[in-house]
Amino acid sequence: MYARERQRRILAQLETAGRVAVTGLAAEFEVTTETVRRDLDQLAGERRLVRVHGGAVPRATAETEPDLEVRRVTNVEVKRRIARAAVALLPEDPRAAVMLDAGSTVGELVPHLSGRRGPVITHAPAIAQAALVHTDLEVHLLPGRVRPTTQAAVGSATVDAIRALHPTLAVLGGNGIHASGVTTPDPEEAAVKAAMVAAAERRILLVDSAKAGVRHLVTFATAAEVDTLVTDDGLPAELAEQLKEAGMEVVLA
After folding, report:
1. What is the rounded CA–CA span in Å between residue 90 and residue 94?
2. Ordered DSSP codes for the chain
3. Other Cβ atoms closer than 10 A to 180
4. SS3 for 156-197, per residue?
5. Which of 142, 167, 140 is nearest to 157 (CA)?
6. Which residues make Cβ contacts (< 8 Å) with residue 109, sequence separation at least 6?
7. Of 49, 65, 137, 146, whose CB is crowded by the most CB atoms within 10 A?
8. In this structure, what are the phi and psi dihedrals at residue 186, rounded to the nearest 5 degrees?
9. Which residues of the chain carry a pLDDT beneath 50?
10. 117-147 tens-digit pLDDT
11. What residues form DSSP beta bridges with 21?
12. How far apart are CA 131 and CA 199, in angstroms?
């Protein structure tokens, strides 16, 4: 099979599956993994896909940011499993302050806060509203301009408010994770997330494995700055080992 025929079939698979893996393509085409990597690199150079850890994703996956309503109905069961696994990482002291980032996976943790009595701090109005259902919680909504895509406050007022706080735990989401850090497409979102990372005593990241290997515009935390990643068992083993070597605990839900 000629290289261009392989590349056409790779692009066709991306359209239907949303992701391709080097090892799977090598087995399907009966070629070496080095050959597949060259094909992917060529297609990436032509801006027809984006290379990620172990394979590739369509450019739309890596470069666009779905809004919150879309993310709320995507991989719901996986996100709920991740949230349930994260419960064990909440501070033992029920009065300890917990800061929640915006995001659909972090939002799945809110029902599990029932019984806690400490401050819950967030820049996401929807998460604040959900937390108010649990009357023992002391809910703090951070100031700032609400960004429509994520329905979360961003800007200097948000960052300054976070810098004045010292929560025991920050629970973060992300749009992409790779060996060197966690990324998101928007610089203002990244600034808020980075401020949370700097303010908290401990930091946990809740992302599903579809984000693995995806690199967006802005890195808001290095792998060493996140204490624990909670994800699903689709996380590539090689990436899991790289994150552990950087000092990150990896919990598979």
Report:
1. 9
2. --HHHHHHHHHHHHHHHS-EEHHHHHHHHTS-HHHHHHHHHHHHHTTSSEEETTEEE-HHHHH----HHHHHTSSHHHHHHHHHHHGGGS-SSTTS-EEE-SSHHHHTTGGGGTT--SEEEES-HHHHHHHTTSTTSEEEE--SEEETTTTEEESHHHHHHHHT---SEEEE--SEEETTEEEES-HHHHHHHHHHHHH-SEEEEE--GGGBT---SEEEEEGGG-SEEEE-TTS-HHHHHHHHHTT-EEEE-
3. 14
4. HHHHHHHHCCCCCEEEECCCEEECCEEEECCHHHHHHHHHHH
5. 142
6. 83, 86, 87, 100, 171, 206
7. 49
8. -105, 130
9. none
10. 999 999 999 999 999 988 789 999 999 999 9
11. 55
12. 21
For residues 64-95, one letter each, b for 16 or more C-beta atoms within 10 angstroms of the residue's C-beta and e for the rest, the string is ebeebeebbeebeebbbbbbebbeebbbeeee
CA dist., res. 78 & res. 60, Å (int) = 22
| Burial of 55: CB neighbours in 10 Å, binned 0-12, 13-18, 19+ | buried
Cα–Cα dist 113/99, whole Å:
12
Query: What pairing do the DSSP bridges indicate for beta strands 98-100 and 119-122?
Result: parallel
Tokens encoding 163 = 């810098």
- List, in sequence order, every residue forming a beta bridge with 181; answer none if it has no partner: 178, 222
| pLDDT on residue 55 | 83
Least Cα distance to 202 among 163, 167, 249 occurs for 167
